[in-house]
């Protein structure tokens, strides 16, 4: 089996070794080395990246024989290998993984909430907890406990123990494998069976911050950031806060109140605008009815707008259809062709059938009930051609009825 150098020294960034085997996996070259500092994907932690003799390592995994397989972007020449780890990525993973151990134990101390699973993501990491919903106060308490451990800079150690010593340790959860178990401990706080890479002191984890909690059936998923990730997130959010305070000419302490006042004002303006639009719509409806085309016993209002909100389109169609004998064929070209057809209760034509005929003419889709239908077409669809098809179908309805 490959000797795992990251067990001996997780801070090892470069190493020299020899190729033991060379194969292909899914068309890509792979090598197994006598020893490696590359961590393979396992235990919720992603694999390391880096180079072997300058060739990028794109994946690392453990095969069925227990060897660590390095998947390369190109073939490797020669048997001697110089490897280099992508150190910023490795240290980031060490911060997040050790931070997870601390946060998981902190949730136990804060409220006896156990971690069910862990995932270390590219942008944020998550733990799934066995309680839902999760109280905000409990998370705040767990955060406080976790960061106190960090600030105390407790020692973090990782070592293999035998069954006798394992039985004496207060592990957070029983190990999932048999044989020699590697235990990662945060001094006088947490003991966990783990094969991942970790920092050697809690202070190197940096700040631990929960950024989101979501319910997943009977579990709670906690999204958290540690170290450089937490600092980057704080810097990004602080920039947003500063931009908002400058834009609203207010202080950080008054920012929320300022936004709430702005939101209330916007709602009031929207209400006034909506009332004005409805009043104007009543005027437009009267004018459109005067200009309606008479087809037998029906009055057809055919209108196409270059741009109109679909909500207003529906309301216009509804108001037109309140008048006896009226068929409303309305369309808007932007942001994407949309159609709304409506008919008065005394009209014998089927608006759903008209909509299907209209949208089919321009490669769209639509349908509905006998007195109301909606549809759409791909951007650039010919709105007038669709309305022509609707009028033709309406005239066909008249001939069939006759």
Task: Give a short synopsis of this structure.
With 402 residues, the chain is α+β, with helices and mostly antiparallel strands.
Description of the molecule:
The protein has helices spanning 5-8, 87-111, 136-151, 163-168, 228-247, 255-290, 310-320, 351-360, 383-401, and strands spanning 3-4, 14-25, 28-33, 35-36, 50-52, 55-62, 68-72, 80-85, 115-120, 125-129, 156-161, 181-186, 190-193, 208-216, 219-226, 293-295, 298-307, 326-334, 338-343, 365-369, 372-376. The mean pLDDT is 93. The protein is elongated, with a radius of gyration of 33 Å. The strands form 5 sheets. It has a 6-stranded antiparallel barrel. Strands 16-17-18-19-21-20 form a 6-stranded mixed beta sheet, sandwiched between helices. It is built from 9 helices and 21 strands. A hairpin with a 2-residue loop joins strand 20 (365-369) and strand 21.
């Amino acid at each position: 089996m490959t000797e795992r150098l990251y067990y001996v020294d997780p801070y090892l960034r470069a190493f020299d070794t020899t190729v033991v085997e060379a194969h292909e996996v899914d068309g890509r070259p792979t090598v197994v080395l006598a020893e490696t500092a590359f961590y393979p994907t396992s235990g919720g932690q992603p694999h390391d990246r880096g180079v072997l003799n300058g060739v990028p390592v794109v994946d690392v995994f453990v095969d069925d024989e227990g060897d660590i397989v390095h998947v390369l972007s190109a073939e490797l020449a020669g048997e001697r290998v110089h490897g280099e780890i992508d150190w910023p990525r490795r240290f980031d993973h060490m911060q997040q993984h050790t931070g997870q151990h601390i946060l998981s134990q902190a949730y136990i101390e804060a409220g006896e909430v156990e971690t069910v699973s862990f995932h270390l993501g590219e942008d944020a990491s998550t733990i799934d907890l066995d309680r839902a919903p999760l109280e905000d106060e409990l998370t705040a308490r767990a955060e406080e406990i976790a960061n106190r451990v960090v600030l105390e800079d407790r020692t973090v150690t990782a070592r293999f123990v035998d069954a006798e010593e394992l039985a004496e340790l207060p592990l957070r959860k029983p190990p999932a494998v048999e044989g020699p178990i590697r235990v990662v401990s945060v001094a006088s706080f947490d003991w966990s069976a783990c094969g991942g890479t970790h920092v050697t002191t809690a202070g190197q984890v940096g700040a631990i911050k929960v950024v989101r909690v979501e319910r997943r059936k009977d579990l709670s998923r906690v999204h958290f950031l540690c170290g450089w990730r937490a600092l980057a997130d704080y810097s990004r959010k602080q920039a947003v806060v500063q931009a908002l305070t400058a834009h609203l000419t207010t202080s950080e302490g008054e920012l929320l109140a300022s936004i709430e006042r702005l939101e209330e004002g916007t709602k009031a303006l929207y209400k006034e605008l909506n009332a004005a639009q409805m009043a104007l719509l009543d005027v437009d409806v009267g004018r459109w009815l005067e200009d309606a085309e008479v087809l037998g016993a029906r009055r057809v209002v055919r209108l196409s707008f270059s741009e109109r909100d679909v909500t207003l389109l529906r309301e216009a169609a509804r108001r037109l259809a309140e008048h006896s004998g009226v068929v409303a064929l309305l369309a808007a070209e932007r942001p994407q062709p949309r159609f709304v057809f409506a008919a008065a209760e005394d009209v014998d034509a089927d608006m759903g059938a008209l909509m299907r005929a209209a949208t089919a003419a321009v490669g769209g889709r639509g349908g509905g009930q006998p007195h109301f239908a909606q549809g759409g077409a791909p951007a650039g669809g010919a709105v007038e051609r669709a309305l022509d098809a609707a009028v033709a179908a309406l005239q066909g309805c008249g001939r069939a009825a006759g």
